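Sorry, any thoughts here?
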Amino acid sequence: MPDRAALLDHAARLSHILEGTGAGTWEWNVQTGETRFNERWAEIVGHTLEELGPTTIETWMAFAHPDDLAHSGALLEAHFRGDTDAYECEARMRHKEGHWVWVLDLGRVMTRTADGAPEWMYGTHLDLTMRKGQEEALARSEWLLNRVGELANVGGWVLELDTMKLRWTAQTRRIHGVPDEFQPTLEEAIHFYAPEARAAIEGAVLHAMEEGVGWDLELPLIRVDRRRIWVRAVGEVERVDGVPVRLLGAFQDITDAREQHDAYEQNALRLALANDNAGVGVWELDLVADEVVWDDQMFRLYGMRVGEERSPVDLWLERVHPGDREMIADLLEDAIGGVRRFETDFRVVWPSGVVRVVHAAGDVHRNGHGQAVRVVGVNWDVTEQKAMEAALVADRTRLQALSRQLAEQHELMRVTLESIGDAVITTDARGRVRWMNPVAARLTGFDIQEAEGLEVGEVVHLVDELERTVLPRTPGRPHLAPEVDVNAVLVARDGTEYGVEETVSAIRAVDGSTLGWVVVLHDVTETRRIASEMTYRATHDALTGLVNRAEFELRLGRAVDRAHVDASTHALLFLDLDQFKVVNDTCGHAVGDQLLQEVAGILGESIRASDTLARLGGDEFAIILEHCPPERAETIASAICRRMDDYRFHVDGQGFRVGVSVGLVCFDTTFPDAASVLQAADVSCFAAKEAGRNRVHRWLDDDETLHARRGDTRWGTLIERALDQGRFVLFGQRVHPLGDGASSVEVLVRMLDDEGFLVLPNAFLPTAERFGLAPRLDAWVLDATLRVIAGLPDAYPGTLNVNLSGQSLGDPAFHRQALARLDAAGPSACSRLCVEVTETAAVTNLSAARAFLAEARSRGVRVALDDFGAGASSFGYLRELPVDVLKIDGQFVQGLLDDPLDDVAVRCFVDIARVLGLQTVAEFVDRPELLARVGELGVGAAQGYLLHVPERLERALALDGLRQTA
């Protein structure tokens, strides 16, 4: 065996290797939950090991992003089963400063128990945050490059010289006409060039690799569809430390420009021939050499012999009429300066004294720096033309104006039609395509050359969106759009489909005859998609995909109306899951959502295709059984209960039994409306729960239990009336400090009934929650308490504690109103206010509660977590919720003197509060010996009937020697 020194040396090397990689290490006993982390593991999340200790697997879980837990858990389970050699997962962990850190989590089970279960597992954490940011930045850069290339019709390419790997951008692939996934070799890329151009591009690439010199070439290229085009290929060399490492460049289709250049040269040849026949003289002014060159015709135009020995400049100055010389010089100077094109008429005096009128026009040629280097122009005799124009000047003026207007309108129409987002096609009188704009070419897949002369129906292929049948054309005009209101779909040449709206207008002559047709296709694909998606979202639940409450109520209303019309019988099942809250509190909302999705699938398999299954919210579902007799409805409801009784929800090795309570209502003409049916089903479901859960309770008109339960509706009416009439009063119960510190008063609410008698909270608060009135009641209590605080003298040392319901914590509208009230009250009032929230209510709406409580604390309001310890994961929620005070649940306080477990729990709560810097309050203190014991355990304050029986708030405050009207 190796000696100890060798082992220590080996361990040291391993430690140095890990430090060099920047990895955090972890060890986890899967069976006991014991964990061990190194300093780097803690450093990745912004902590030290001392801050985290002692550590368990819960330490890890507390830092993990909730959305990643299910994925990482699935990967772990696969590794535990032996499906994978190692566990590998990219996940997010919360940094001490509040942001999320990406880590690569690698690990492997190294030991297993005797029965094969995983025991010790070892692994590492690598910080991926920077790499993730780089990947996102690279993706954005690539998207921007492709987008710019698409807009400018310029592609790009890169050739890595070490691997000779060539990459094309999307626009380069479009120019070549290849698929999006195509990436060629260098040999394949060169082979796209026309045979006569390959030697040039091969030589340019080779020269660049050997000499580091770039290129800029215009070459013919043959696309994959065999179409010949001209391209401009530009390349340059990128060096690292003076050594070429890659070639990169741009690629542009210049076919149109090349064709225009060739056409220009042909026109120049034709022009030269025409000049000789038409008497047009050509001249050139070299601005660099300050020389003028004339052709033979120029001498004839100035009344001189061809080949006159004198220079053209002297001849020009001698023969041009003195009154026109300055004008010509100014115009020429403007043209050279780029102000306007040189073109004018001027007078020439021949040696015989005859005055001729010459028309001159010229173009300025510039170098690569924009500097004018020469002017090339023409002259021709327009004397007779001017004479005719003088006689017809009035008509010409009118015609010129009209010509300009027509030209402008034509150009405006052309630019408009090519720029608008709609497809525009013009046809002749028989419906054959004459012209189409670029949008039409894109939508149909035909370019103008291919489409010209075809029947418009061959180019514009329309089908019915739902029936998928070809839309019929108008009788007698088969080339025109259908005269029916349908959702038309344009099927492009390549099979791509676009939702369109088509309109057709006739082009008519002055005599009313039809010259042709204009077909306009408006692309409404995205509009229809958004409308369809919005319709679906408006009628379906986002989590389960089932019909939502709004759509359910519409369908129920239609079923009730149908029952009244044809005397038919239908049924409604109202379902409430029995153990959903246990799963939600124990495993979290993500797992709860998974449970709801599985239950939705089970319910969907248990009903007929014609039935309506809806999720009404939370864990409540409803089913409309149309045209269903009572016996059949009871059979379906009972089958659902049996199937749910057999169902087990499994997560992380735990199995949960989830039952369902069903309220069944068979309805016909006896029910006036949908609301009465839904209320009866709700009450029946509640009765099923009270009768023992996982059963069906059918509504009967003589059901005394259900009629008694309908009394809740009466309470809801009383509460609303009391709120409208201001018939609520504030009570208070003092919270006594057990040492130094100011006392506080918990504000309690009582209702006055119609006769003025006090009603205790347990009589009306559950109904307020049930009917969604809790946020309104909480708002009234908050307003009344802030008014009391405003009247307190500056000497009052304590706080007034206001309870908030779970509905208020989850209601964004209540949040906005409450924060506005706090802002109006001001910092002084906020510092004397404490809001109390139960642990259960807070975790039910954890995200919303956390955000609202943080906003309240930022204004100086204190936060107390009431009934602490009653939840399934109390300690975990302390990390999530911003609180100042822990109010220990009374069930632990009541058992302090008799139950050692309660004693240990309270002592643990006090220790946790001390570590987090929180105050503690013991609830339900009703005996002197309990008061003594909570003081011994270090609880900071106590509350209960031993210390103070709730009374009117003004009297509770008067115990501090204050006089205040609540």
Summary: The chain has 38 helices and 38 strands. Confidence is low (pLDDT under 50) at residues 475-485, 703-709, 961-966. The radius of gyration is 44 Å. The CA atoms of residues 607 and 636 lie 7 Å apart.
